[in-house]
Specification:
The complex is a heterodimer of chains A (about 350) and B (about 300). Chain A is an alpha/beta fold. Chain A is elongated and about 90 Å long. In chain A, about 50% of the residues lie in helices and about 20% in strands. By secondary structure, chain B is α/β, with parallel strands linked by helices. Chain B is built from 10 helices and 8 strands. Chain B has helices at about 15-25, 40-55, 100-110, 120-125, 130-145, 170-175, 180-185, 210-245, 245-255, 260-290, and strands at about 1-5, 35, 65-75, 75-85, 115-120, 150-160, 190-200, 295-299. In chain B, α1 packs across α2 (about 40-55), α3 packs across α5 and α8 runs antiparallel to α10. The radius of gyration of chain B is 22 Å and the shape is elongated. The relative contact order of chain B is 0.14. The chains are: A alpha/beta (about 350), B alpha/beta (about 300). The interface between A and B is medium-sized, with 24 and 31 residues.
Chain lengths: ~350, ~300
């Protein structure tokens, strides 16, 4: 009934009040209602109801979601284009203080241990930076403001994750999620197009490992709207770019899959040719007419090889078409590949 | 086959099923089609409700899940059995420790047709209705995903259209906007057939037969398509078994206590005949039902 679709594990890293949960709720509700063609739903209907209820509270009464408790929340999302399933996402939400907690010894906190274990098997890691704090730093250029972002712990965790990646397991991709991105322009007093390149440079300084030539990183400013009481007189929900991280995660997955498939197709083409050659040799031989059983066996193998090759070609074309479509959605966001930034 | 009604409290689901049943009791039916309630008590209750509605008295909102068993008749012959499932509106917002919520979710995943109800006046005037539609869309999305490639009719029934100016273009568009994500998503697939039906379920009902006829027409066509696929599969399997039915293979199968290819081919042929027998009575009604679907807003 369903074609097999990729499944990825996504882990967000970010400190308390950086906006991890607010982003997730905003992202979920925007995609639930459809953004361009993309949609999202939680496989657990109870979680779906909770995420909708939290968003409604945010919209109606500016009530931010409660800080996550010590018990991490796990979600399974399905990302679709229309009704076509594209990606399953295993998502973990945890309290921001977990980043600083001990992971061993008597003081080890359970969620901290889980988080660290999960990082080693994540396919994509979202590193969350508070855009309000980033805006303060870009306005003041005071190193003390940069320290408030507390990125050094995240940076060392990312570095350790890359270093300790099990052999044979591809490196994760990264999304540097700059939440509350509207506050960067607000606090610097500069228009967004002028200040964003400075923000990206600051990200490079704060999170050097995500600019490693071996990984691919999306730098994604997002906003839920004008919800900071400190900065705005009028409260307004106006999400922007909340769908880009998932699009990037899928795009990255597909490009890796395409590279693997192209190698596999080469091997399948060889197998197809070899099976056809063996059959042709048998049929051309003197004794071929008397070896009906062998003929059937080789004909079956040749059919199977041809079918496998054809199916892989079709799957490759489908993935390439989808990747092209997704790439178009990412045209306007900065992506770091092989250590170099491109728009 | 199950048809599931989905909608929040007081959207008009229970009112609808009563008026729909009454409409389908006309002497000559609707285009030759009538409904028969399988449980005699069900039919009486629905007709009593319909009579009260014609006098301006509306049934209480459902507190229980109701499952009505119906038989679609065509020219007085039974054609198709189906169940029509109604839930209390609160079940949509309830967590899975609520029994009705669990039943609703399970029924949706296997529903052969889904009819979504939404109150026109609330859609235009009550901000909370937008969140309710989101919950509806999410449930429909999950249900359609569970059904995969199976053909599924989806009706969006906008109720209480006598309380708004439905003839106005802007009003009509505003009523559809909250449902656009699922409408656009359904349009992009080949297996969801959708329609938006404005309903009036009061003393002077309007369009009441459209949702049931649409759901049945496409559900029966979908069932016919499934049966055709099964028949083709059995026939292909029978041909495959015939091609392998050599003397050597027969001896080997008998020696090893396996079914012979001849026996397998026969089983597949019997199964194909059985599916053909199930298919034949559906073909004409499916076509006739579709002819009754005029003037609908499809997607």
């Amino acid at each position: 009934m369903h074609a097999v679709i990729p499944e990825i594990t996504v882990t967000m890293l970010g400190h308390s009040k950086s906006g991890k949960t607010t982003f997730m709720i905003g992202m979920y509700n925007m995609l639930l209602s459809g953004l361009t063609d993309y949609m999202l739903y939680a496989t657990d209907a109870d979680q779906d109801l909770e995420l909708i209820a939290q968003w409604e509270k945010l919209c109606e009464s500016s009530e931010l979601p409660k800080a996550t408790t010590e018990v991490p929340q796990y979600y399974n999302f399905v990302f679709t284009r229309g009704l076509k399933r594209l990606l399953k996402i295993d998502w973990m939400d945890y309290r921001g203080g977990t980043l600083l907690d001990e992971t061993s010894g008597a003081d080890a906190k359970r969620d901290a241990v889980e988080l660290h274990a999960r990082l080693t098997r994540s396919d994509c890691i979202y590193a969350v930076l508070d855009g309000g704090l980033l805006g303060d730093f870009l306005a003041s250029r005071n190193p003390a403001d940069l320290m408030k972002l507390r990125a050094s712990r995240m940076s060392s965790l990312i570095h350790r994750t890359l270093d300790q990646r099990p052999v044979g397991r591809p490196l994760p991709s990264f999304v540097v999620l700059i939440t509350k991105a509207d506050l960067i322009a607000k606090r610097t007093g500069k228009p967004a197009p002028d200040v964003m390149p400075e923000a990206v440079k600051a990200v490079q300084r704060l999170l050097t490992p995500v600019f490693d030539p071996q990984v691919t990183t999306l730098i994604c400013p997002v906003r839920i709207g004008r919800i900071s009481e400190e900065d705005y007189d009028r409260y307004e929900i106006a999400p922007q770019w909340v769908e880009k991280p998932f699009i990037f995660s899928l795009y990255n997955y597909l490009t890796e899959q395409i590279a693997d498939d192209q190698q596999l197709i080469g091997r399948l083409a060889d197998r197809d040719a070899e099976a056809a050659a063996q059959l042709s040799k048998l049929r051309g031989s003197f004794l071929g007419a008397f070896r009906a059983g062998k003929d059937r066996e080789l004909a079956g193998a040749a059919d199977a090889a041809k079918r496998a090759y054809g199916e892989k070609q079709t799957a490759l074309r489908t993935n390439q078409n989808e990747a092209e479509r997704l790439a178009a959605e990412l045209d306007d966001v900065p992506i770091v590949r092989h250590g170099k930034l491109s728009f | 086959m199950d048809i599931v009604m989905l909608g929040h409290s007081e959207a008009g689901k229970t009112t609808y099923v009563s008026l729909m049943y009454k409409e389908m009791q006309k002497r000559w039916g609707v285009g030759g089609f009538r409904l028969r309630a399988r449980g005699r008590g069900d039919g009486d209750i629905l007709l009593a409700n319909a009579k009260a509605i014609s006098g301006g008295r509306y049934p209480d909102a459902s507190t229980q899940r109701s499952v009505y068993g119906f038989v679609l008749q065509h020219r007085r012959s039974d054609v198709f059995d189906f169940s029509w499932r109604d839930y209390r509106g609160g079940a949509l917002r309830a967590m899975s420790d609520d029994r009705q919520a669990r039943e609703l979710r399970a029924d949706l995943a296997s529903a052969a047709a889904i009819v979504v109800f939404s109150d026109a006046r609330r859609l235009l005037t009550d901000r909370a209705a937008a969140a309710e539609v989101k919950i509806l869309i999410s449930n429909v999305h999950r249900a359609l995903d569970a059904r995969g490639d199976l053909p599924t009719p989806l009706v969006i029934a906008i109720t209480k259209c006598d309380l708004v100016d439905y003839r106005d273009d802007q009003t009509r568009k505003a009523l559809q906007v909250p449902f656009l994500p699922i409408i656009e998503a359904a349009r992009s697939t080949g297996n969801v057939q959708g329609a938006i039906v404005p309903l009036i379920c009061g003393p002077r009902p309007k369009n009441v037969k459209a949702p049931i006829l649409f759901a049945l027409a496409h559900a029966i066509s979908g069932r016919a398509e499934q049966l055709r696929n099964e028949i083709s599969r059995h026939e292909a399997a029978a041909r495959q078994a015939d091609s392998l039915n050599t003397f050597g293979r027969w001896v080997s199968d008998k020696w090893n206590g396996r079914k012979t290819q001849g026996e397998i081919a026969r089983e597949h042929r019997v199964a194909a005949l059985r599916e053909q027998a199930a298919l034949r009575p559906l073909l004409d009604p499916a076509e006739q039902l579709k002819k009754l679907l005029t003037g609908l807003d499809y997607f």
